[in-house]
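Deliverable D2.4 — example input (structure tokens):
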């Protein structure tokens, strides 16, 4: 988004990273940020406090409408990919036990250890609801870990099940397997840009530039780009520049 605004709108963009929880949302409301990419399911359940639903188009329509009326913020068209929670096990374990779905894994989980990030442990659409929906029980209480460490902990056998991000390049790099959410517990998490209406009115070229990204990234492409950064250790700016130049 930043490179697209700079190249197409000719504006300098200040980037801020590692803003977790609702920090980005609060920064938009206070004017400390002009825009960022949010996930529809996160906005629907965490910000608007609705009960999760699975209709992706209806979730988008509701968050777009309510963000405009409640916060005076504008949702632009989705970027094309979803970044849902990915319930992961080791690939060799999935093959050995013929695991395809979370329901399959629930039969074995009483003998397993789990590790989850703090965000997943505390969210309305996180671990407590997932455990209830699937009857998940573990050999010991799940370990609360930094999300970035859970992937390696799973690969090394320190835990047996984690909740990662479906577009994370480490899934392929570490030979992990994503279990199907066969009970459709998780809401849709379509990525879409949100901007302050004042910013778009002042600089309409931003909306035009960001509009060129609508539908441009699918799940497979996003995972490939993430792998280039996380797995191949390439510079983010170079990976983005190559993608945008295609």
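Example output (designed residues):
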């Amino acid at each position: 988004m930043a490179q697209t605004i700079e190249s197409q709108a000719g504006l300098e963009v200040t980037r801020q990273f590692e803003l977790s929880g609702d920090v980005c949302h609060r920064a938009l409301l206070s004017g400390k940020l002009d825009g960022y990419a949010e996930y529809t399911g996160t906005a629907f359940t965490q910000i608007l406090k609705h009960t999760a639903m699975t209709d992706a188009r209806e979730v988008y329509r509701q968050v777009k409408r309510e963000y405009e009326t409640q916060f005076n913020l504008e949702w632009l068209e989705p970027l094309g990919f979803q970044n849902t929670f990915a319930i992961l096990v080791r690939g060799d374990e999935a093959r050995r036990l013929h695991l395809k779905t979370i329901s399959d894994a629930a039969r074995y989980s009483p003998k397993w250890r789990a590790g989850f990030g703090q965000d997943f442990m505390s969210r309305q659409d996180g671990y407590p609801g997932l455990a209830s929906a699937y009857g998940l029980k573990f050999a010991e209480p799940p370990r609360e870990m930094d999300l970035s460490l859970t992937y390696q902990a799973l690969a090394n056998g320190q835990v047996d099940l984690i909740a990662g991000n479906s577009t994370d390049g480490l899934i392929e790099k570490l030979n992990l397997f994503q279990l199907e959410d066969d009970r459709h517990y998780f809401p849709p998490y379509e990525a879409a840009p949100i901007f302050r209406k004042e910013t778009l009115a002042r600089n309409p070229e931003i909306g035009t530039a960001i509009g060129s990204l609508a539908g441009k990234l699918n799940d497979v492409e996003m995972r490939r780009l993430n792998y280039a950064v996380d797995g191949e250790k390439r510079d983010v700016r170079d990976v983005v520049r190559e993608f945008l130049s295609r």
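Strands lie at 35-39, 73-75, 85-90, 114-117, 143-145, 161-165, 176-178, 191-196.
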